[in-house]
Design brief:
Order of helices and strands: HEEEHEHEHEEEEEEEHHHHH
Structural class: alpha+beta
Largest sheet: 7 strands, mixed
Number of domains: 3
Number of helices: 9
Radius of gyration: 26 Å
Distance between the termini: 46 Å
Shape: elongated
Strand content: 15-25%
Length: 308
């Protein structure tokens, strides 16, 4: 099964962190040999800043040192290859950006009422709030709709067909559109527990996926003005709180890990600025007690100074 760009990026990122940790625990430099008369003398040499350090090893270099230096060279070669792969992925993602923006613009200009969420959400708040966030955009473009939907009737299939998208259906009956590169999906807040089937959005002639805790994302939305069009995204603090809550319900460990990493990254930036910090903490006080408790436990674990 072909991995998505996101899965590839996360894999290479984890490998890069692992290799960097291993490299940092291995000796630097190389082993040199000098022959004086009939005798061989070995030296361990490495750089510290502009200086070259030398350690005399004797007539026979330690075998474990030779192995560790060779392992470091192998890992440094792997690191170079991983960085090249990451560069290729980022370039591919940047190529996708224009098309994704065009889809968002098309929906906004046709008065489709939505919140942009998913992987294309993070670059937007990074831009608006000047957050230092790692962002990776996948082939999935996710739109959150209110349910019931009271917006203007629009035939989304008819709207997307001229730009190369065809309609498809998942096993649960939900609708998606794809052009072979992108997959456009629609989500709605789950109304009641245990709803597994897709919900009909008749004005748009689609069926959307119901998910828990989505309703909270409509609170305090941020308007993004692009001049020719505008759209809304969730506020970063509510989005982070949502990630904390949804992570508790994940059955897939990798998705749970992704939720936690995103929540931590966003909250770290929020808490750097007094204004956004106060907005986040004020918002937290308005949430239901059960949600508030779960979020406070998360904050106590990952941001103890804030939780106090």
């Amino acid at each position: 099964m072909r991995k998505t760009l996101e899965e590839n990026y996360l894999y290479f990122l984890k490998e890069l962190i692992r290799i960097n940790n291993e490299i940092n625990n291995l000796p630097r430099g190389s082993i040199s040999r000098k022959k004086i008369g009939n005798s061989n003398y070995y030296y361990h040499q490495w750089r510290e800043g502009k200086k070259v350090k030398t350690l005399f090893l004797g007539h026979i270099p330690p075998e474990n040192l030779l192995k560790e230096i060779q392992l470091r060279k192998t890992l440094e070669k792997q690191k170079k290859e991983i960085l090249e792969n990451i560069t290729v992925i980022i370039k591919a993602i940047n190529v996708q950006k224009v098309t994704a923006e065009e889809i968002i613009k098309l929906f906004a200009q046709n008065n489709i009422s939505f919140l942009l969420i998913g992987s294309y959400y993070l670059p937007v708040i990074k831009e608006v709030f000047k957050f230092n966030l790692p962002t990776i955009k996948t082939q999935d473009i996710d739109f959150l709709l209110k349910f019931p939907y009271h917006g203007k009737p629009v035939d989304i299939e008819y709207l997307l067909k001229p730009i190369g998208f065809t309609i498809g259906f998942y096993d649960d009956g939900s609708t998606y559109f794809t052009n072979g590169i992108f997959s456009i999906e629609f989500l709605v807040p789950e109304k009641g527990k245990g709803i597994e089937n897709a919900l009909s959005i008749k004005p748009l002639k689609i069926r959307a996926i119901p998910l828990r805790y989505m309703e909270m994302l409509f609170d305090q939305p941020i308007k993004i003005d692009r001049g020719e069009y505008s759209f809304f995204v969730p506020s970063p603090w509510i989005f982070a709180f949502h990630k904390i809550l949804i992570s508790k319900k994940r059955r897939n460990p990798s998705k749970q890990e992704k939720d936690i990493l995103q929540a931590k990254a966003i909250l770290r930036e929020i808490f750097k600025k007094e204004e956004t910090r106060q907005q986040a903490l004020s918002c937290l006080k308005t949430l239901p007690l059960k949600w508030r408790t779960a979020i406070k436990i998360f904050l106590a674990e990952h941001f103890p100074l804030i939780s106090n």
